[in-house]
Design goal:
single chain; mainly alpha; three-stranded antiparallel beta sheet; 16 helices
Length: 408
Amino acid sequence: MKFKYVGTTRQREEVQGTLDAQDEVEARMKLRAMQIRPSYVGGVGIGGINFEKLNEISFGPPVDLKGLLIFTKQFASLIDAGVPVVQCFEILSDQEKRPAFKNILKRIKSDIEAGSSLTEALKKHPKVFSNLYVSLIEAGEVSGTLEVNLRRIGKQFDKTDRIRAKVKGAMIYPVITLVISVGVLAFLLVKVIPEVSKLYGESNAELPEITVQVLGVSTWMQTYYPYIVGIIFALLVGGQAAWRVKSVRVVLDPLVLQLPLFGDLMKKSAITRLARTLSTLVSSGVPLLTAFEICINLMSNESIKAVLAQTSSLVSEGKTMAHGLGLKKHIFPPMVVHMVSIGEVTGKLDELLEKVADIYEDEVDDAITNLTTLIQPALIIIVGLIIAFLLVAMYLPIFQLADKVAGG
């Protein structure tokens, strides 16, 4: 198979060309023998198609968070056992079942063999290895604590995944309940009520006003339901697209934080993630401003991002982190600000941030419990009342007719 390469010679001259090799590893070994340090090596197939790149094509990310967590823990165990980094990637790539991630691990191994550091090799795959991941690896390489930092990454990902799953579950459950409820109501209005109304049409009896109104809504639903479904679908798609626009998020995100129950949950989960991530980065030796930059990119709420950006700017001017966070008490409560301040004064910022994360993780659990406890019964009661109203409206004429027969 032919491979195209770009690299530099020992005289720092840039060269490029093609060579024959069984795979990318052999191609890089041949280039090293030619005293060329490659910056790019890629397989070239018929018509210039890079068939090796086809192995990286997938319908989702090369690896999900849980898969990356397992990889990180295994990598840490191998490093702890004294296995060289190159051999670690050889072992991990051999046992990897996902083709896209397997190929990425092989490329990282090849880059390291060609002279790149682990950090440089990981940076080439930002879709898999985030800035947080790479920064912790870089700090571990510099300080000689790679195994320790890998375990910190594993712990960070584990807790982040757990919080994310809890919040996602709390958000999805009410939505599913609401969708099912709306579906039941639509079925009653479009299918059930029209069948019952046929009885009244044949009797020519005078109907109560409440029944007339319900029949009117039912008729309107039958006539326009395709358009209603289309409008709802368009609103959902359009809303999702608009939500991705930063200018829209800047306007809406502060409002999200003010929503009853949901806003409180969003703030507490954001504080948990921020405190946990900052603690991990600071304890690993990452500079505070760099850690802030990473955390800003991790936050999904533009309002919280703005606060962190302002705090980072103040820290760069010599102010404390606690001072910056304390300017926005509606997002960061006094308890958080005080604990950060104590951590800065005592030199134990990472430990105090870890305690903040633990406290707010419990707060997130409580917020989720409150959310599900209040919303689920409320939705059931509201939908039950609406269904009861529809049934009474449709059967009221029958009750009135029965009263007339009994009185006559």
